[in-house]
Amino acid sequence: MDSDLWERCFWLWGLLLWLSVGSGGDTSPTQQPKCTDFQNANLLQGTNLKVQFLLFTHSDPSCGKLVEESSDIQRSGFNATLGTKLIIHGFRALGTKPAWIGKFVRALLRSADANVIAVDWVYGASGVYYSAVENVVKLGIEISRFLSKLLALGVSESAVHIIGVSLGAHVGGMVGHFYKGQLGWITGLDPAGPEYTRASLEERLDPGDALFVEAIHTDTDNLGIRIPVGHVDYYVNGGQDQPGCPSFLHAGYSYLICDHMRAVYLYISALETSCPLMAFPCTSYKAFLAGHCLDCFNPFLLSCPQIGLVEQGGVKIEPLPKEVRVYLLTTSRAPYCVHHRLVEFHLQEPRNKDTRIVVTFLSSNVTSSVKITIPKQQLQGKGVLAHPDPQCQIHQVNLKLQASHRVWRKDRTTIAGKLCTAPLPVHDNKKMVCLPEPVNLQADVTVSRDLKITCV
Q1: Which of 174, 272, 282, 361 could disulfide-link to 140, CB 3.0 to 4.6 Å?
Q2: Which tens digits make up the pLDDT trace of 6-22?
Q3: Of 76, 166, 269, 368, which residue is the catalytic one?
């Protein structure tokens, strides 16, 4: 081979090398870590704990950076001056990545200037549920060790927010217990019920695990825990049988998981929209629907709690009360938000039997109804109605007196009374709006009236 050919080959090899390294010629080892995804485990691989901590930042919300050592954390874009949010998933029967995790991470990063770390423990969470339960303490220890590295970098304990889903909620409680309740915030999204309803405080999530602990209950009759476990416990639609979820077994997997996972999608929706998911303390769901709990004076001194990234859930009193049950209604689809209203009907004359009236609000193509019962010999009945549109968009109200069950002849009962309504929370009667004229109702006949309410 002549010297010119050697020269040309050498020059071409040098050019290819230069292009592969980059025109800047920087080959320093401080390049950004590559993106890492969740692990996948099968039934045979599960039960062994194999934890990954994946950091997501504003600069690349879709790229999870594997952080294990302090050096990984420092060069991954972690900002010790910001708050840190850890997401802990729950039981993964098939050993797969949670389908909701990407949307959850992005919603958190859009809503808060914070580091978001997803804890991937798919290996230890798959297979048999009871094996996953046995891994809770071990996982709590691993997360606590990881947190100690963050604290060494200058992160404040009070700036740590753990968001645990199902079994992950109790993992968060375990971590909080190891830190003697000094972590800032723990959110339990439908904390797991099996094996935990009768567990000790050391074994499950409880108000002593952080400075503020909240839980959102959506499946208390199946996979979620029934008892309150936080300072504030939201029982959404009573805590079970969520609207839009299948009610029959033939729906398969969706029947089993829909109510349980609604807490996750509610929380994501609360991050993505401005409509507040506000709740009201009450002794029971039945009492709430009956209109017996209309404000948040007791015990929150009028600061009604709401789901989302609101400091202490919007509760402004100290010290925080514990295990307060609060109730709210939602729609069947995102954004789930409704406007709660008190509805009252006042009879002109008492009756010798219970009076039942169905009240329906209409706005555009949306309708919402509530049934009011006026006990015999009383003049007033009330209930809580949830409507997806603001009050000024409600333009009509329909009223219908329910007929008595008479086999031999038609019920021709007539009554007269006044309808009034007010938005929750009701702190006084100044916001009460009543129809200008009394309404005459005949059994099983719908009466329509225009309803004009100004927006606040």
Answers
A1: 174
A2: 344 334 333 333 333 33
A3: 166
pLDDT tens profile 185-228: 999 999 999 999 999 999 999 999 999 999 999 999 999 999 99
Q: What is the enclosing helix (H) or strand (E) of 384?
A: strand 380-387
- State the DSSP string of 330-380: --SSTT---EEEEEEEEESS--SS-EEEEEEEEETTEEEEEEEEE-TT-SE
Which residues are annotated binding-site positions for Ca(2+)? 204, 206, 209
Tens digits of residue pLDDT in 61-107: 999 999 988 888 988 999 999 999 999 999 998 899 999 999 999 99
Domain ranges in the chain? 52-328, 339-450
Residue ranges for the binding site? 204, 206, 209
Domain 52-328 sits in CATH at 3.40.50.1820
Rounded to 10 deg, the angle between the 253-272 and 101-111 helix axes is: 20
* pLDDT class of 327 with cuts at 50, 70, 90: very high
Per-residue DSSP letter, 94: T
CB half-sphere exposure, 168, CA atoms < 13 A: 27
Catalytic residue among 177, 217, 260, 387: 260
How far apart CA 281 and CA 287 sit, in angstroms, is 10
Answer CATH for 339-450 from 1.10.10.10, 2.60.60.20, 3.40.50.1110, 3.30.460.10: 2.60.60.20
Q: Look up residue 25 and give its amino acid.
A: G
**Sequence-separated contacts (24+) of 425-433 with Cβ below 8 Å:** 425/280, 425/294, 425/295, 425/296, 425/302, 425/304, 426/294, 426/295, 426/342, 427/295, 427/297, 427/302, 431/456
What does each C-alpha distance from 307 to 167, 282, 315, 425 come to in angstroms? 20, 17, 11, 16
Answer yes or no: is pLDDT of 291 > 60: yes
How many other C-beta atoms can be found within 10 angstroms of the C-beta atom of residue 188? Answer: 31
Task: Identify the pLDDT of residue 456.
Answer: 64
Q: Cα separation of 203 and 136, whole Å?
A: 9
Q: Quote the CA–CA distance of 205 and 168 in Å, as a whole number.
A: 10
**Catalytic annotation present for 190:** yes
Choosing from 190, 219, 233, 259, which is the catalytic residue? 190
Question: 66 phi and psi, to 5 degrees?
Answer: -70, 120
